[in-house]
């Protein structure tokens, strides 16, 4: 199976996607959206869901930012930075919604900069150290596929704000997934060394698939994409050996604390400072 065929099959249903999702349009996705919590929607549960999804995006964006100046090509550096900015934009909207409905009135900065690691609810795959480029691609492939499936469902959520954020995110995530799929095939079907690295990266990601399924069941979508990509790349499907624990329960790896220290350092050193 060629790269082009993988692109066409994964892009099906997203033909109007832009190659650069971030910055191509500046319409406010929440313009005119009623921010009142709908009757029958549990505000506490809604806030918790928004925070968890925002934490996934924020931590993922921070890891992607580490590739600035380190990506193998300038074009890929720009691409990864833009993907990170997409995720950062999603995090900001979701944190703001959480602050509206959880009764605390917290803004996005309070959630991002002034919570400790134990208060974060991101999945652990997002917080793992960057590793090599193949690992970055494998992680992005899995997380974007999983998040895309979730956001496609959330676009019909009874809360109109969460539904609007999800609908906007679907277009962005479809590009993220496609970008990762193309690189996975290129690496897997490239040199012996790139093949070895891509195979090792998928094996590193595999133990965290169980946590993703527990946080939100997109098992079929993730399995289908991994099958198509690995077939096109001449790679074996990774062995599935789930690890115990869950970031959704506040159980994190030792890597989250230093990551947050880097992310939060300036804000905590100068609280309330403005330009």
Task: Please characterize this protein's 3D structure.
With 275 residues, the protein is mainly α. Helix content is 61%, strand content 0%. It contains ten helices and no strands. It has helices at residues 3-11, 43-65, 74-101, 108-113, 133-154, 160-188, 192-205, 209-215, 219-233, 256-269. Helix 5 (133-154) packs antiparallel against helix 6. It is globular, with a radius of gyration of 18 Å. The termini are far apart. 43% of the residues are buried. The model is unreliable at 17-24 (pLDDT under 50).
Can you summarize this structure?
The protein has 275 residues and is mainly α.
Topology of this protein?
Elements: H1 3-11, H2 43-65, H3 74-101, H4 108-113, H5 133-154, H6 160-188, H7 192-205, H8 209-215, H9 219-233, H10 256-269
Helix pairs in contact: 1-6, 2-3, 3-6, 5-6, 5-7, 5-9, 6-9
How many helical elements?
10
Relative helix content: 55-70%
> Strand pairing plus helix content: what structural class?
mainly alpha
Rg estimate, integer Å: 18 Å
Shape category: globular
Order of helices and strands: HHHHHHHHHH
Strand share of the residues?
Answer: under 5%
The stretches of 5 or more residues where confidence is low (pLDDT under 50) are 17-24
Characteristics:
0% strand, globular, 275 residues, mainly alpha, 10 helices
């Amino acid at each position: 199976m060629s790269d082009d065929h993988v692109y066409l099959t994964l892009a099906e249903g997203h033909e109007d996607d832009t190659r650069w999702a971030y910055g191509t349009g500046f319409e406010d996705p929440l313009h005119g959206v009623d921010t009142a919590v709908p009757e029958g929607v549990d505000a506490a549960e809604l806030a918790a869901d928004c925070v968890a999804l925002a934490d996934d995006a924020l931590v993922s964006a921070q890891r992607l930012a580490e590739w600035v100046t380190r990506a193998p090509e300038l074009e890929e550096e720009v691409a990864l930075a833009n993907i990170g900015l997409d995720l950062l934009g999603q995090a900001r909207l979701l944190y703001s919604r959480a602050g509206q409905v959880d009764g605390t009135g917290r803004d996005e900065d309070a959630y991002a900069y002034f919570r400790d690691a134990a208060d974060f609810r991101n999945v652990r795959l997002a917080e793992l150290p960057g590793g090599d480029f193949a690992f970055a691609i494998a992680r992005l492939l899995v997380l974007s596929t999983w998040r895309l499936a979730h956001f496609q469902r959330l676009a019909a959520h009874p809360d109109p704000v969460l539904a609007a954020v999800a609908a906007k995110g679907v277009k962005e995530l479809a590009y993220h997934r496609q970008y990762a799929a193309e690189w996975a095939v290129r690496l897997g079907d490239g040199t012996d060394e790139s093949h070895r690295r891509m195979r090792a990266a998928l094996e590193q990601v595999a133990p965290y698939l169980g946590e993703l399924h527990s946080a939100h069941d997109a098992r079929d979508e993730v399995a289908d994409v991994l099958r198509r990509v690995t077939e096109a790349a001449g790679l074996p499907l990774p062995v599935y050996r789930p690890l115990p624990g869950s970031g959704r329960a506040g159980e994190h790896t030792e890597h989250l604390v230093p990551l947050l220290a880097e992310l939060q350092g300036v804000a905590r050193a100068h609280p309330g400072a403005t330009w």
